[in-house]
Design brief:
The complex is a heterodimer.
Chain A: H1 2-17, H2 30-35, H3 37-58, H4 69-75, H5 78-111, H6 117-129, H7 133-143, H8 148-157, H9 170-195, H10 198-206, H11 211-239, H12 243-248, H13 256-266, H14 270-302
Helix pairs in contact in A: 3-14, 5-9, 5-11, 6-9, 9-11, 10-11, 11-14, 13-14
Chain B: H1 3-10, H2 16-33, E1 38-47, E2 50-60, E3 65-69, H3 76-84, E4 91-96, E5 99-100, E6 111-115, H4 126-136, H5 141-154, H6 170-183, E7 188-192, H7 200-216, E8 221-225, H8 229-235, E9 238-243, E10 246-252, H9 253-258, H10 263-268, E11 273-281, E12 288-293, E13 296-301, E14 311-316, E15 322-323, E16 332-342, E17 347-353, E18 356-362, E19 374-378, E20 385-388
Parallel strand pairs in B: 3-8, 3-9, 6-7, 7-8
Antiparallel strand pairs in B: 1-2, 1-4, 4-5, 9-10, 11-12, 11-14, 12-13, 14-20, 15-19, 16-17, 16-19, 17-18
Helix pairs in contact in B: 2-5, 4-5, 4-6, 5-6
The chains are: A mainly alpha, B alpha+beta.
């Protein structure tokens, strides 16, 4: 308070002392105002313009008139409802899985000393760098009909049909997405855990708290911003995941991104594709807003009064 | 935040009546539950094969404030962490209130602890921080509220319960940390450099606060680790000085300061002048010995087992040296002024006598001597001790 008061006081003194013939201070802002133009232009041309085109296209009929008829048509199809249901189910399940697995693994790596913890931590970065469909391919080799597990089980128990049959379902997609995106939760969490003051944990312990209470009341609240960041990322990535769903090719599992691909590339129905894209964007942003507000509420609730 | 209120708290202007009432209530409880001392018996702690605390034996009496001081890496914090249960000794035994706690986890030891950076839980309000330990012990909610209120009042923070730690100044955060540690009604309080992060003015106020707090809680045993000897001398009943993981000196604060048992204690605690002297007359009467420093004969307290011809170190505190105007009198050292530094509340002079450097700390002088001047520096014989010359201590 004191600093700001003295700052404004000195500012006033300077203003009083400034000779009248000096240029106005706003002139010095000109270079920084100009500097914002190139990034805005790049964003406008390569991001906002196509985005506006898609949105605009979704509100115009094939005759070029402004209409919501396309929305009514697309929203009324079973194909859309099925895609929406699968998208929501897969997104929420995969994000929840990523958060649960990411939090558990991060806690083990950060707080349970074991040989090789540092190497495991480094491997997470490597995993993030890999293309997402590689996991789907690896899953096909392991859990697929002709994969390692089914092959071993069939020869061991003389079975005529592969016993493991979850990969080509919604659960296979969810498992693959959890595997791919869990490191996106772990990376910020591990960074956050490394910043927790060890003294806080020790003091909590000396005050009589057992490890689970320390985890619940000291560590997790401290890591909540990182958990929010990782979870937000997962939510957005899983909502819009395309490669894994396409690669696994689960029976009857069609998500919104896949449906957009079908409409635009295979059926050349650009109008429907634009409507679906607009809905997909709204869904992503809606999920994101819901997630952030839920965690903010949880954060406030966790810091309640005595 | 209310900066005026914050300044008031830091200057120590707490509602003392309320604070004393709260403290009296806590003292009564502490007395009722009995107090516990701390015992180290041959405790050795090693990190990655290197010994940081070696065969450490020390008994902190119930209700006593014992300060552990020493240079960085001397093992003082390790000793404290061994009591808290954060490090496990490779040998020896740690006891609290007569109970062996060596193998107990920290949460089962019932010890309050305050650290340098406060370690308040940032996402919890002040009242929640103080309540944390009680809730961890499943105390009834009515008791939690009463105890939180009482502890916050004791440290003058009753009005700050709804604040978050980030909304408090350093001094206020430290008060909350103390309240949190005391809320669980520990018999033993461990303070690990608790005032190091505070600026000088607040630190002085907090030293007074801690002293008042301990007067209010006489049954509380306090182990205080610090590198600041003024904190140790002000607060501690006894001081232990560590070096290289070993206890080098232990004694009542005043006694340790006035009669350091060895060279390291003399130099570390108070930065004493140490002059090599030869004992001329071991028993010169009245409990003094006569010694020779170069060509000057001096008197000092007679050490035990002193023999004529033996070399000893004459230990004189800088503030026990005074200028003697005029001709040299008894027990004076002729010295040349090397440097004069004014430090506000004192003049700090560096003198040179018989090729040795002497420090003299004086109340501010109206006309301090110029560098190069020859002066007579006097000390009272009963303020000087003779230490065994044990090399670097």
């Amino acid at each position: 308070m004191g600093e700001s008061a003295s700052g404004s006081a000195s500012g006033s003194a300077l203003a009083l002392a400034r000779p009248a013939n000096l240029p106005a201070p706003s002139a010095s802002l000109a270079p920084s105002s100009l500097g914002i133009v190139p990034p805005l232009a790049v964003l406008g041309i390569f991001f906002f313009y196509p985005f506006v085109l898609i949105l605009g296209q979704s509100f115009f009929s094939s005759h070029g008139t402004l209409s919501l008829a396309q929305y009514a048509e697309v929203l009324g199809t079973g194909l859309f409802r099925n895609a929406l249901f699968h998208t929501i189910t897969i997104t929420l399940s995969a994000t929840a899985g990523c958060l649960a697995l990411g939090l558990s693994l991060s806690i083990v790596i950060a707080f349970v000393p074991f040989p090789g913890a540092r190497i495991v931590s480094r491997m997470i970065d490597t995993f993030i760098a890999l293309p997402t469909f590689l996991v789907a391919l690896a899953f096909t080799f392991i859990y697929g009909t002709a994969g390692l597990l089914n092959g071993a089980a069939m020869s061991a128990f003389s079975l005529s049909l592969p016993p493991i049959d979850f990969l080509y379902s919604q659960w296979g997609v969810i498992l693959a997405e959890v595997t791919v995106y869990t490191p996106f939760v772990m990376r910020p969490l591990l960074a956050s855990f490394s910043l927790i003051d060890q003294a806080e944990i020790e003091i909590a312990s000396s005050l009589g708290a057992r490890p689970f209470r320390i985890l619940r009341q000291v560590i997790v609240p401290a890591a909540l911003p990182a958990l929010m960041a990782g979870g937000s990322l997962c939510l957005l990535l899983t909502t819009n995941e395309f490669g894994i769903v396409l690669f696994i090719g689960a029976k009857g599992v069609q998500t919104l991104p896949l449906l957009i691909y079908d409409k635009a590339i295979q059926e050349f129905d650009y109008s429907s594709a634009c409507v679906l894209a607009a809905i997909n964007i709204a869904l992503s942003l809606g999920f994101y807003a819901l997630y952030r507000s839920t965690l903010a509420w949880l954060g406030k609730r966790g810091a309640g009064l005595v | 935040m209310n900066s005026a209120a914050a300044r008031g708290i830091e200057a120590g202007s707490v509602d003392s009546q309320l604070a004393d009432l709260a403290a009296a209530s806590l003292a009564k409880e502490a007395g009722a539950q009995g107090a516990g001392g701390i015992g180290f018996e041959g405790v050795t702690v090693a990190y990655k094969g290197s010994i940081v605390l070696a065969d450490f034996t020390l008994a902190v009496r119930p209700g006593e404030v014992l300060a552990l001081i020493g240079p960085s890496g001397s093992g003082k914090t390790t000793a404290l962490r061994a009591v808290a249960g954060f490090v496990r000794p490779v040998a020896g035994r740690v006891s609290v209130g007569g109970r062996d706690v060596t193998d107990l986890p920290p949460h089962a030891r019932g010890i309050g602890m305050v650290v340098q950076n406060y370690a308040l839980f940032p996402h919890m309000r002040v009242a929640e921080n103080v309540a944390f330990g009680l809730r961890a012990r499943h105390a009834p909610e009515t008791e939690v509220r009463a105890q939180v209120e009482s502890c916050l009042a004791m440290v003058g923070m009753a009005a700050f319960g709804r604040r978050y730690p980030r909304e408090l100044s350093g001094g206020q955060q430290q008060r909350v940390a103390i309240a949190r540690a005391l809320a669980i009604r520990p018999d033993v309080l461990l303070l690990d450099e608790p005032l190091s992060a505070l600026d000088a003015q607040i630190r002085h106020a907090m030293i007074e606060e801690l002293a008042r707090l301990h007067r209010s809680l006489p049954a509380l045993t306090v182990l205080y680790v610090t590198h600041d000897q003024s904190e140790a001398l002000t607060l501690a009943d006894r001081i232990g000085i560590l070096r290289d993981g070993r206890l080098r000196a232990l004694g009542p604060s005043r006694e340790l300061y006035r009669r350091p048992p060895n060279r390291f204690a003399a130099e570390f605690l108070g930065g004493a002048n140490l002059l090599p002297v030869v004992i001329e007359t071991p028993d010169a009467g009245n409990g003094f010995s006569e010694v020779r420093f170069g060509t000057t004969r001096l008197r000092a307290l007679r050490p035990e087992g002193a023999a004529a011809g033996e070399t000893r170190l004459l230990c004189i505190r800088p503030h026990n040296l005074t200028f003697v105007p005029g001709d040299p009198a008894a027990n004076t050292v002729l010295a040349r002024v090397h440097e004069v530094r004014w430090k506000g509340e004192l003049h700090d002079l560096t003198l040179e006598a018989e090729g040795r450097t002497l420090r003299l700390a004086s109340v501010p002088l109206r006309a301090p001597p110029e560098p190069g001047a020859v002066v007579s520096a006097y000390f009272a014989p009963d303020e000087a001790t003779l230490l065994a010359d044990e090399g670097d201590g």
